[in-house]
């Protein structure tokens, strides 16, 4: 299985990365869009892959996309303009739209994002956009909104280190960590892949698109 983090609108790099990786089921860890030049094209590609049985999880950038493009002004969860400070303007430009034309984005893409799950599991494995930290129960981490506010401990926003659990966690979202293995030596060991219980594979801070093949744990990268 292939696991790919934080494409960030870089369609061409994604095509090159997929060509390097085994032809197996792929799980995208969210943040497919924003900042890069071809978010709309990324959603076209990933949407076609999802229709063939691959999986795309929701990230915080997809959540902001939905809030900006779909919600009525009085029902919006995020402050006005916050999506644009996170690269959302580039997503609209990829559709040939201006920032006031979010209502014109491809409706198929809206459906794709609205139906993205927050996590994916297989025996011994837990995949999500952000690390699972909040509370002792998964239901706490899957609550995105609390009392009309965004839950910062959710599986799309959490910035704190994961807790050790019975399943290996693989996630993105924390580009400031880069490729980081969490093991019994502690946190933030970027050069110690021995017996990890959690792995961050987001290297977008260095403009590198990163994928991992599971269970071989082979890392594939593509600069953009």
List keywords for this structure.
single chain; 224 residues; alpha/beta; Purple Acid Phosphatase, chain A, domain 2; six-stranded mixed β-sheet; five-stranded mixed β-sheet; 7 helices; 25% helix; globular
Task: Give an overview in words.
This protein has 7 helices and 13 strands. It has helices at 11-20, 39-51, 60-70, 82-85, 88-94, 107-114, 138-141, and strands at 2-5, 26-28, 55-56, 119-122, 125-128, 145-146, 149-150, 168-171, 179-183, 186-189, 198-201, 208-213, 218-223. With 224 residues, the chain is α/β, with parallel strands linked by helices. Strand 6 and strand 7 (149-150) form a beta hairpin. It starts with a strand and ends with a strand. The model has no long low-confidence stretch (mean pLDDT 94). The strands form 3 sheets. It has a 6-stranded mixed β-sheet with strand order 4-5-8-11-9-10, with no helix packed on it. A 5-stranded mixed β-sheet has the order 3-2-1-12-13, covered by helices on one side. A two-stranded antiparallel ribbon has the order 6-7. It has one domain (2-223): Purple Acid Phosphatase, chain A, domain 2 (4-Layer Sandwich).
Can you tell me the CATH architecture?
Answer: 4-Layer Sandwich
The share of residues in helices is: 25-40%
Number of H/I helices: 7
Q: How many domain modules? A: 1
Q: Report, as a whole number of angstroms, the end-to-end distance.
A: 23 Å
Oligomer: single chain
Beta-strand proportion: 15-25%
Structural classification: alpha/beta
Average per-residue pLDDT, rounded, comes to 94
**Mind telling me the CATH class?**
Alpha Beta
Provide the succession of SSEs: EHEHEHHHHEEHEEEEEEEE
Say what the CATH topology is: Purple Acid Phosphatase, chain A, domain 2
């Amino acid at each position: 299985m292939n696991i790919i983090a934080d494409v960030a609108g870089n369609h061409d790099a994604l095509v090159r990365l997929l060509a390097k990786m085994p032809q197996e089921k792929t799980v995208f860890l969210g943040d497919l869009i924003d900042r890069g030049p071809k978010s709309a094209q990324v959603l076209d590609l990933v949407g076609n892959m999802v229709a063939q049985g691959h999986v795309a999880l929701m990230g915080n950038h997809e959540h902001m996309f939905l809030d900006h493009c779909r919600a009525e002004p009085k029902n919006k969860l995020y402050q006005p303009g916050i999506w644009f400070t996170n690269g959302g303007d580039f997503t609209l430009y990829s559709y040939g739209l201006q920032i006031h034309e979010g209502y014109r984005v491809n409706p198929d893409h809206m459906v794709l994002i609205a139906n993205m799950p927050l996590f994916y599991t297989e025996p011994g494995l837990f995949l999500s956009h952000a690390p699972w930290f909040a509370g002792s129960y998964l239901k706490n981490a899957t609550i995105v909104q609390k009392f009309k506010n965004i839950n910062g401990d959710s599986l799309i926003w959490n910035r704190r280190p994961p807790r050790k659990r019975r399943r290996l966690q693989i996630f993105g979202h924390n580009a400031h960590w880069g490729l980081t293995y969490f093991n019994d030596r502690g946190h933030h060991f970027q050069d110690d892949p021995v017996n990890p219980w959690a792995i961050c594979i987001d290297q977008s801070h260095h403009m590198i698109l990163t994928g991992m093949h599971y269970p071989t744990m082979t890392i594939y990268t593509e600069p953009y």
